[in-house]
Amino acid sequence: MNSYFSKQKKCCRRLFPAFPPISPPEIRVLAYVTNSGGDPTADTVSVINTTTNTEIFPRIPVGDNPLGIAITPDGLRAYVTNADENTVSVIDTTTNMVIGNPIPVGNVPFGIAITPDGSRAYIANLVDDNISVINTATNTEIFPRIPVGNDPVGIAITPDGLRVYVTNSFSNNVSVINTETNTEILPRIPVGELPIGIAITPNGSRAYVTSGFIDGTEDTVSVINIFTNTEILPRIPVGDGPRGIAITPDGSRAYITNLADNNISVINTTTNTEIFPRIPVGDAPIRIAITPDGSRAYITNLADNNISVINTTTNTEILPRIPVGDFPFAIAIAIIPTLSNISCSSVFY
Questions:
Q1: For tag attachment on the chain, is the N or C end more exposed, with fewer CB atoms within 10 Å?
Q2: Among positive and negative, which fits the CA dihedral 188, 190, 194, 197?
Q3: Is the pLDDT of residue 73 over 80?
């Protein structure tokens, strides 16, 4: 036995004479951006290296008019809603290639969120007024679909995975879904007019909802008490046309994209008041994501075809902006572990 292992070690030295011992996994933090495109050839996903703030080419072709995107908790898959072809594309983030066939869902799939255990994806079907659920192990839809309010857009899941919160943009309320039964918990929660974006605090106690048109009407953030499913009043005034929202990992601040004002509002979640001044960004900021360490926020500027990056310590923009594809819409951040080295022991034993 000792002679066998001695021979294997000698063989290993000959094959891999300079191989160092195995090192801990490296972590890549990448931002994935849906480019909703002016034509089908422009329907892609851009990938940004958040260390260098540069795009990784080539872009990833997906379905027609990609709007929503969510990353599995292990960082290995990105799910993209293709609004004009009623499907979801799945990207392998280790290769940045689409895997399998597009998954059929409801009409005009918009927002998407994935459960904390990574087992299911919930998709808001805008035209059908319902929610599709995908089994991520088989990448097939779980039926029946779940009825909600009118024109569901935004979607978020509690950290314990037990509840899904959906903004019903034309019902001016929020639906809550029990993920164990995949049924709606009634009554719905009234919020401001035209609710779009939604984010839940890391401790699972509150949901923040953006509401408002692009004419100065409403323009508020509603706060929902998750334990009672009631709104905490008063609503928080923000800029014109609030759309995307993201909360820092420590739960202390919420960042909101003001589409018509071309800036970002920041809310102190302890006092539920806005921190001024607002942060100027590009033209038509529409969605936002925050890095896992909370140090930076990435914003899609829909009309500028680029990404703004905010330093969350100083609440100032880090220039230059990052060019991406046509009409960048949604953004999600993936934490992807990669092994940089292999040891002899891992090869042979």
A1: N
A2: negative
A3: yes
Amino acid (one-letter) located at 267: I
Region 48-63: what's the mean pLDDT? 98
AA identity, residue 48: I
93/332 Cα distance (integer angstroms): 12
- Quote the CA–CA distance of 118 and 135 in Å, as a whole number: 9
* pTM: predicted TM-score of the whole model, two decimal places: 0.91
Residue 19 pLDDT > 90, yes or no?
no
* pLDDT tens sequence across 166-210: 999 999 999 999 999 999 999 999 999 999 999 999 999 999 999
Cis status of the peptide bond prior to 190, with omega within 30 of 0: no
CATH fold, domain 28-338, is: Methylamine Dehydrogenase; Chain H (2.130.10)
* 64-81 mean pLDDT: 98
Task: Specify the residue for token string 């890095």.
Answer: 291
Question: For residue 98, which amino acid is it?
Answer: V
User: By percentage, how much of the chain surpasses pLDDT 70?
Assistant: 89
- Structure tokens, 313: 């310590």
Amino acid at 15: L
DSSP H helical segments within the chain, as ranges?
2-15, 344-348
- Is the separation of the CB atoms in 279 and 316 below 8 Å? yes
Q: Half-sphere exposure of 314 toward its Cβ, with a 13 Å CA cutoff?
A: 7
Helix, strand and coil percent figures for the chain, each rounded to 5: 5, 55, 40
The helix or strand, by DSSP H or E, that contains position 108, with its residue range, turns out to be none
- Collect all residues with Cβ–Cβ distance below 8 Å to 110 and sequence separation of at least 6: 67, 68, 81, 83, 123, 124, 125, 126, 152, 153, 154
Label residues 233-252 b or e (16+ Cβ within 10 Å = b).
eebbebbbbbbbbbbbeebe
CA angle centred on 244, ends 185 and 159, rounded to 5°: 45
